[in-house]
């Protein structure tokens, strides 16, 4: 019998007493050992003796005190686990760390149990899963295809049912390509949200630790537990409160970018366009509005990763070994890194200038969009095709993924269907930095479907909505305070019929006060604006008494943040509710 290892299901089994962590972990270890000769998913599968300290640490512990109590996970073998060799798929590079990577320490403290270290493309350089002296990793569904990489074994550990989740890394797509090829959710969070302390760098300035899960909900739970500022990691970043666990929920109607037809590339695959069109239709069914997006600056940025100086960053890790012992590094990796020594400072700065110019264009293109959808890969390639043309075919796998970390975006690879031969296929949702939980919310809705029950909470991102009823209306005296903060007008509508509107004493500028009442209310004309969450605080502190921000109910029943008036401020005010709005009142003054 195949166990459901999803986080909530496993927790319920432990709570009911139908399963114990020891029973589960030892059973999964046996399963992994049986699979390893064919799939080469583990470089080091922990022995029963090596597992015992982790299992013993749960003895006598309360299930409710450990959010990941007894949850089995796998670790890509460029991420340190104390006392176990880290190889980066290069035996000559191997070392035994005395301390685990920060992310591993966090997971162990939460009660999770490591099964072992997983196989990868050597030095995390590759997107296919075949570049390892420990064996190529075949696909979990069709063995004539690769698993995808570089986080090959990590994806297989979840896809083959030996771990609830696994850790990978992602510099150019290593946490997303294998997710697509193995029907998994691959979460590549904003750079720095998950600590990379204790991770062998590929490109230190770009690397991200990723997770593979069956569902977006699980990825959301893991991100919320581990997105913490880490003093061990100089590239660690604080997670804004708009991106915490409470941001995960049901997305409201949203606008999503879709690449122009001329920017899409399926490399001759006839099924890809149909599968992608179906994914777009599913997003529309969730309330999404598709907006055509010029992807050319994104794709130009992607080419910089291997055509530009960033290859020298990879060389900074493996270069010394290559120089001293060339045969220790696989020929295909040596070929990728061969041009790195010739990279000079002038080239590096010129590439950085070009990247910054491209990022300005890309950021501008994302304004007004909640996310963008692309295929995760253009087409799958067979093991035979990779063997014949390893660099070209690997490059094709990264067409939609290479730009993401260079441009500092968050991304989620989501399963979306199957090809005619049964091979999984997926799309990627990406967006601005620190919109991770929002992207996971859209991914969750996408996985569940339009008719499935939705989380009660409303998904949040890096934009805040604001209802205005007076001088901040479009074109009026104080509207500049919104536009100067990058706000955009979303809609003109009405409040619910539960309010009265007063022209307050004083001025200029002359302002209204909107008050919710039990009886005698009317619907008031309002506008809904959206501004960056980072600007909301400065806007709030500038609001003079007796006004403030609270919750305003709109005509369709929604509650949004908006202007409200303290009752004491109505002294000397004139009730103008019968006019239905501030613009009508101004017009009545002649």
TrEMBL record:
Gene3D superfamilies: 1.20.58.1700, Amidase signature (AS) domain (3.90.1300.10), Gamma-glutamyl cyclotransferase-like (3.10.490.10). Residues 465-587 form the Allophanate hydrolase C-terminal domain. The keyword Hydrolase applies. The keyword Hydrolase applies. GO terms for molecular function: allophanate hydrolase activity. Its EC number is 3.5.1.54. InterPro entries: AH_C (IPR053844), Allophanate_hydrolase (IPR014085), Amidase (IPR000120), Amidase_dom (IPR023631), AS_sf (IPR036928). Keywords: Hydrolase. NCBIfam families: allophanate_hyd (TIGR02713), PRK08186.1 (NF006043). Residues 23-440 form the Amidase domain. This is Allophanate hydrolase. Pfam families: AH_C, Amidase. The lineage of its organism: Bacteria, Pseudomonadati, Pseudomonadota, Gammaproteobacteria, Pseudomonadales. It comes from Pseudomonas fluorescens.
């Amino acid at each position: 019998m195949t166990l459901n290892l999803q986080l909530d299901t496993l927790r319920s089994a432990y709570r009911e007493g139908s399963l114990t962590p020891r029973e589960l972990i030892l059973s999964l270890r046996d399963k992994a050992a049986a699979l390893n000769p064919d799939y080469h998913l583990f470089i080091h599968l922990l022995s029963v003796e090596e597992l015992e300290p982790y299992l013993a640490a749960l003895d006598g512990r309360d299930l409710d005190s450990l959010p990941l109590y007894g949850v089995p996970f796998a670790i890509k073998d460029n991420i340190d686990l104390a006392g176990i060799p880290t190889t980066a798929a290069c035996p000559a590079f191997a070392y035994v760390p005395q301390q685990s990577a920060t992310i591993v320490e966090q997971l162990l403290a939460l009660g999770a149990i490591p099964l072992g270290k997983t196989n990868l493309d050597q030095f995390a350089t590759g997107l296919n899963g075949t570049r390892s002296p420990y064996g190529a990793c075949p696909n979990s569904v069709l063995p004539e295809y690769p698993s995808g990489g570089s986080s090959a074994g990590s994806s297989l550990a979840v896809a083959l049912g030996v771990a609830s989740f696994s850790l990978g890394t992602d510099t150019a797509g290593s946490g997303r390509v294998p997710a697509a090829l193995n029907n998994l959710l691959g979460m590549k969070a904003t750079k720095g949200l998950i600590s990379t302390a204790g991770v062998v760098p590929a490109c230190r300035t770009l690397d991200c630790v990723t997770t593979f899960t069956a569902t977006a909900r699980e990825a959301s739970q893991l991100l919320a537990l581990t997105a913490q500022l880490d003093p061990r990691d100089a590239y660690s970043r604080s997670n804004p409160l708009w991106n915490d666990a409470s941001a995960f929920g049901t997305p409201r109607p949203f606008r999503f970018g879709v690449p122009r037809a001329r920017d899409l590339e399926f490399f001759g695959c006839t099924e890809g366009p149909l599968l992608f069109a179906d994914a777009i239709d599913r997003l529309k069914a969730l309330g999404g509005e598709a907006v055509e997006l010029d992807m050319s600056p994104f794709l130009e940025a992607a080419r910089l990763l291997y055509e530009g100086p960033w290859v020298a960053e990879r060389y900074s890790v493996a270069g010394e070994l290559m120089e001293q012992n060339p045969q220790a590094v696989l020929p295909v990796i040596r070929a990728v890194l061969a041009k790195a020594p010739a990279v000079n400072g002038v080239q590096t700065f010129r590439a950085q200038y070009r990247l910054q110019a491209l990022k300005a264009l890309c950021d501008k293109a994302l304004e007004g969009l909640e996310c963008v959808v692309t295929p995760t890969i253009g087409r799958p390639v067979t093991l035979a095709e990779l063997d014949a043309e390893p660099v070209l075919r690997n490059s094709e796998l990264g067409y939609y993924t290479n730009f993401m970390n260079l441009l500092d975006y968050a991304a989620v690879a989501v399963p979306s269907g199957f090809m005619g031969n049964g091979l999984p296929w997926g799309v990627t949702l990406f967006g601005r930095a620190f919109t991770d939980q929002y992207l996971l919310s859209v991914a969750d809705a996408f996985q569940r479907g339009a008719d499935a029950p939705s989380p009660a909470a409303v998904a949040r991102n890096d934009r805040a909505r604001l209802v205005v009823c007076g001088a901040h209306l479009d074109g009026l005296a104080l509207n500049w305070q919104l536009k100067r903060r990058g706000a955009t007008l979303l809609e003109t509508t009405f409040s619910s019929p539960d309010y009265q509107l007063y022209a307050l004493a004083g001025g200029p500028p002359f302002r209204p006060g909107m008050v919710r009442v039990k009886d005698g209310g009317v619907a008031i004309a309002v506008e809904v604006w959206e501004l960056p969450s980072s600007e909301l605080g400065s806007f709030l502190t500038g609001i003079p008494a007796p006004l403030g921000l609270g919750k305003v109910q709109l005509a369709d029943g929604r509650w949004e943040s908006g202007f409200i008036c303290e009752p004491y401020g109505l002294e000397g005010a004139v009730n103008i509710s019968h006019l239905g709005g501030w613009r009508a009142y101004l017009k009545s003054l002649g």
